[in-house]
Amino acid sequence: MKLRLIPTEERFYELFVEDGENLREAARKLQSLVADFDRLEERVAEIQTLEHRGDEIDVEIQRRLEKAFVTPFDREDIHELGSRLDDVVDGIQRVAETFVIYGIDAMTDECRGLTDILAEQAVQLVGAIKKLGDFDGISAFLQQVHELENRADGLSRAAIGQLFRGGRDPLDVIKWRDVYRELEETIDAAEDAAEIIERMWHKAG
Fold first, then answer.
1. Are 89 and 54 in contact (CB under 8 A)?
2. Phi-psi sector, 37: left (phi>0), alpha (psi -120 to 50), beta
3. 177-202 burial, b if ≥16 CB within 10 A, otherwise e?
4. Between the CA of residue 127 and those of 16, 21, 67, 84, 89, what are the distances in Å?
5. 121-to-19, 39, 128 alpha-carbon distances in Å
6. Which residues have a Cβ under 8 Å from the Cβ of 87 and sit 6 or more positions away?
7. CB atoms < 10 A from the CB of 55, how many?
8. How far apart are the C-alpha atoms of 148 and 43, rounded to whole Å?
9. Of 51, 61, 121, 149, which cross-links 190 as Cys (Cβ 3.0–4.6 Å)?
10. Would you write out the chain's pLDDT as a tens digit for each of its 205 residues?
11. Local structure of 191: helix, strand or coil
12. What is this structure's pTM?
């Protein structure tokens, strides 16, 4: 077990947990939006509220980083983890808003699959973040994030390939290609966050 003592006067650990849980909730909201595909504007507004909260948490992380004399992790890692978690929530918001902007009126199984993967990544990220105190057992959570990203790569490629078969409307192809790519980038951002946590873990050892 790798021990890491976190100064109680600097709430980085608590802020990261809050940030991760906010991300997880945004991912769940997107998953529900895609599953039910109703009340789009209301559901998008809920995700936007979570995105604003994520911005506030990131600002607080950076503020505390600027004033902290001693930090529990490298300053660069603290900054990057907060930024990468924020990127994931930003991506979730963009995906949700794209459904409204593009006037998409029906969901695809591939989109549901990618959104399910993103929601599960969020669960695993929160699990990893909660292990930042001592890193004990963190590797299983990080491995799951990576494996989920690999699954998403295959599903995304298949989904985009399917768009160009079957004589679909060209405008429909463009819309869904953008949605799939946005989802893939958001899933990649979740893996980026996991890689920073992994870097913090290795430095602690």
1. yes
2. left
3. eebbebbbebbbbbbbbbbbbbbbbe
4. 11, 10, 28, 16, 17
5. 14, 25, 10
6. 186, 189, 192, 193
7. 14
8. 25
9. 121
10. 444 444 444 589 999 999 999 999 999 999 999 999 999 999 999 999 999 999 999 999 999 988 888 888 899 999 999 999 999 999 999 999 999 999 999 999 999 999 999 999 999 999 999 999 889 999 999 999 999 999 999 999 999 999 988 778 899 999 999 999 999 999 999 999 999 999 999 988 6
11. helix
12. 0.93
- The tokens for 22 are 């906010």
State the virtual CA torsion across 49, 114, 82, 205 in degrees, nearest 10.
150
124 token code pair? 């695993």
Residue type (1 letter), 109: D
Which residue type does 90 have?
D
Instruction: Round to whole Å and give the CA distance between 56 and 15.
Output: 10
3 state SS for 97-141: HHHHHCCCCCCCHHHHHHHHHHHHHHHHHHHHHCCCCCCCCHHHH
Length of the chain: 205
